[in-house]
Give the backbone structure.
Amino acid sequence: MNGANTANEYVYDANGNLNKNITDIQYNFLNLPSQITFDDGSTIVYLYSADGTKLRTMHNINGTVTKTDYCGNVIYENDTATQLLTEAGYVSLNDNQYHYYLQDHQGNNRMVVDKNGTPEETNNYYPFGGVFASTGNIQPYKYNGKELDNKKGLNWYDYGARHYDAALRRFMTIDPMVEKYYNVAPYAYVGNNPIKLIDPDGKDWRIATEYNQVKHKIEYKITVNAVLYNNSDNANINMEKLSAAIQQQVNDTYNISGKDFEVKMNFNLRIASSVDEIGDNDHVFQVVNQADLGKSPNGIVQGKASTPGLNIKLGDIAVNNLLSGEDKRTAAHELGHTGGLHDLREDKYADNLMMQSYLIDRFGKDNNKSTKLDRNQIETIRDNYINNKLNQNSPKRSEWFRKYLVK
Ligand SMILES: [Zn+2]
């Protein structure tokens, strides 16, 4: 790999960007590609907003110009709105027809069907995302649901922060979090292990879906790195003991096994003694004064969390019950909210972790036995990870947190 034979080889520039030397790739100051030039003079020009969101792609391929504009979830081609992207697929705007993605357990679009369920496109992928067999090609969102540009044989997926080359199995720029994964080559896609891990936004990964061929089970491997912080007036809480109790509770509730699936939780909770030790992407469990949780007409509020989000508050009552071993669900329940799970209220869910506490009493059940999570809930959290809905709203960035800092 020395750049001598530029038609076939790949070289890195001084900033670590990969140049597929058809003739040239230029990168902007965000290290995103701004222009690709092919040896016959064809070009692809990209336009981004200041935060790196792609706004426009201009293909000039063999003299044919195609302008694609990305305006929220509407896509324009040559100034005509062509696609409205939805949670489940898209609407083709020339005929107002719905198209639905059928995804596999990795979030790959394996099939596109029309409203009657008739297949319009099928895709089969190599483990690293190359398409090895397909029928139809009516839309560009493929592997991990990401946009594939295969014009001029480019075969790049757009992961937002970075572009991924399925043939090279490499991202085209250095991983923005490279210092976190110093033991993995900086261009590697999810540690060279695509079956196990999904890189939802090119920045980080927090959930893995794996098929265990020995056990014939799908395994969901969740990683949550959280911080425990005492933001209350009570300085005498045994934080080590509280941390151990929360970890025990989360491990007891999120490590579950079913007939054809298993969930493995890798939950890391460290204690922060000052806000400076809390990162912007940390889940924060913070102990607050009971009075700060407010009142509910339904009874005592033990904890609160943002759904989905990074912020969990536990009051004195929950903390005391966690420390004495009497509470088996509050911290795990609030963690579920940060994964995007909502409260359940119907009696058929009375033994579920996300059932509202006061209703468990009302249905005559035992609060400490209402700790079950089902596979649909795990898949909801997984899908939220893939769709970049989690890890939002750090309490560090909200007014709410600062209010408690000033005492
Ligand atoms: Zn709740």
About this structure: The chain has six helices and 25 strands. The CA atoms of residues 141 and 147 lie 4 Å apart. Residues 333, 337, 343 surround zinc ion (CB under 6 Å).
